[in-house]
């Protein structure tokens, strides 16, 4: 069974004309990668509230090393994708849209950092924290979803 998908590239060309319909078990690979990612987060102590507090109090390099290596890996990966015109596994061209800076990114970053420091959680590790039995983090998860919804609702009225 196939279905039409209306995704297009920035040039307006339809890049995914026909795509096979996903079956529920087709998403198991994402579940398995997510579980593996969560295990790595737990073992590396990235989800530890104490490690996060050490970072914000400038008492330890651990989290800065993890974040720095992730940023460096991302930079090298994007460079390689652009330099060698790497395509997806299905053969599609990877398009990375150019980014422009605006002052809203500073405000958003400050709000994000403040929330991260107060809760000891950022969106990535929330599920891993819940998975380790820190069920109080469910409040943080619900708050993150609510904050995202509020931003989406008022986005057009906010300065960008």
TrEMBL record:
Keyword Electron transport on entry: no
Q: Name one Pfam family in it.
A: Sulf_transp
The record's annotation in InterPro entries points to: Sulf_transp_TsuA/YedE (IPR007272)
Where, by residue number, does the polypeptide cross the bilayer? Answer: 30-50, 62-85, 106-128, 134-154
Q: Which UniProt keywords apply?
A: Membrane, Transmembrane, Transmembrane helix
Q: Which domain of life is it from?
A: Bacteria
The name under which this protein is listed is Membrane protein YedE/YeeE
């Amino acid at each position: 069974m196939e279905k039409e998908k209306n995704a297009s590239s920035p040039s307006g060309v339809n890049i995914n004309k026909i795509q096979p319909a996903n079956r529920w078990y087709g998403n198991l690979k994402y579940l398995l990668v997510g579980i593996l990612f969560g295990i790595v987060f737990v073992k590396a102590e990235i989800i530890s509230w104490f490690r996060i507090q050490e970072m914000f109090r400038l008492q330890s390099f651990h989290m800065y090393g993890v974040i720095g290596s992730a940023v460096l890996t991302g930079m090298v990966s994007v460079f390689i994708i652009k330099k060698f015109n790497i395509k997806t596994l299905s053969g599609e061209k990877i398009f990375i849209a150019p980014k422009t800076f605006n002052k809203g990114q500073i405000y958003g970053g400050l709000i994000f950092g403040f929330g991260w420091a107060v809760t000891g959680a950022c969106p990535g590790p929330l599920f891993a924290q819940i998975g380790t039995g820190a069920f109080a983090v469910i409040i943080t998860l619900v708050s993150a979803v609510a904050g995202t919804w509020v931003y989406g609702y008022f986005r057009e009225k906010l300065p960008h």
